[in-house]
Structure formats: C-alpha cells, structure tokens
Amino acid sequence: MSVRQATVRRQTAETRIEMTIGLDGSGQSSIRTGVGALDHFLTLFSRHGLFDLTVDVDGDLSVDAHHTVEDIGICLGQAIREALGDHRGIRRTADVAVPMDEALAHVAVDCSGRSYYVQRGEFSSESVGALETDLVRHFFDSLSREARMNIHVMTLYGHNAHHEVEALFKAFARALDAATRFDLRLGDRLPSTKEHIEGTS
Asked: What is the CATH number of the domain that holds 80?
C-alpha cells in the first residue's frame, strides 16, 4: 500500500505556506499559522481525524486574516486531494455529528472528485479570537473546491462560537477520516458505479 501523504507549497504576494498531511497517521501535528484560533482548530482536526499535519505560514496579518485563512484552505484541499490519489478502495462518503458542550455540528463529506460546499446554521458571534467566523465558511469552501469534495456542514445549535467552530472542525475530521478509510470489500475498485472519480486519471 502506498503512503498517502502529500506536501504542498504555495507562495503569493500575500502568503507563504508549506503544508504536509499524512492521511494514515496518528494525529501528530505542528501548526503555525499566525492565527491562534486557527492553530487550535487545525490541531483538533489533526488529532480527531488521526491525520499527521504540519502547517507553516507567513501571511499578511497586518492587513487581516482573510488571505491567510483562505490560502490555508486552498493548500489543505490540494494536499488532501493529492494524498488520496486515485480514490481506489476508499469508502468515499461519511457523516458525523459531534457535540462540544452546548453546541452540536453535523458534517457530511463525499470524496467524489466534484466540489460543492453547503453550510447551514449561524455562528453565535462574529469571531473567535482573531479568527472571524465568516472566514470559517470561506476556509471550508476553499478546501472543498481544491479537494474536489462535497462538504455539507450544519451548525445545529449552540451559544458559544468557539464551541460551535470546534465541533465543526472535529466533525469534519472524523467524517473525512471515515470517508478515506479503505473498505476491504472494495479491493482496488473505485467507489463509483461510473468506475471513475471526477478529476482523477
């Protein structure tokens, strides 16, 4: 079995990013984005999905966190897509609901080779630390597009934005972990009646 790992590097006038993800890891992470709340949530993503993740970023935070968060979403999506390879033998779809104290989030993913992002539910406040909650939507939208993955998220309820976002990242991690696991019944077949996943060779 090949190692499902990928490294992505991206440099623009706004950000410099180097990121590595291992899908079959143990939840080890080293995260430095310059946005403390995002460091926290990506660390949770790594631990709860059992993905090994390193993220090193220099962004134009003197402007705001927008470019940094967007470009991290882009790179994480690209890294997931590359690490997944041709999708043979994976379960492809999964959904998970995760509570965090009073908050509950439900996330469904489909590693279909087609991007589509839907989010339902509002966050209780406009930011968690320096991370604007509107950028959480933007992060997952960018990730979905670059990973060529359907991601549907629902913030079902809650009254603390930190808890709401934390539940969302944990639920996404666990859903992605479940969807990317191998199913021995599939062997090396693709999880599609088309015998093809969009965007793969």
From this structure: 3.30.230.40
- State the Cα–Cα distance between residues 36 and 49, nearest whole angstrom: 20
Task: Answer whether residue 140 is part of any domain.
Answer: yes
Strands 52-59, 15-22: pairing kind: antiparallel
Residue 143 lies in a domain: yes
CA gyration radius for the chain?
16
Q: What is the pLDDT of residues 47-73, one digit of tens each?
A: 999 999 999 999 999 999 999 999 999
Q: Is residue 123 part of a domain?
A: yes
66-79 tens-digit pLDDT? 999 999 999 999 99
> What's the whole-model pTM score?
0.93
- Judging by beta carbons within 10 Å of its beta carbon (0-12, 13-18, 19+), is residue 107 exposed, middle or buried? buried
Of 71, 64, 52, 65, which is closest to residue 11 (Cα–Cα)?
71
Q: At what angle do helices 161-179 and 36-49 cross, to 10 degrees?
A: 40
Q: Cα–Cα distance between 199 and 201 in angstroms, integer? A: 7
Q: In this structure, what is the dihedral angle of CA atoms 136, 141, 147, 151, given to the nearest 10 degrees?
A: 90
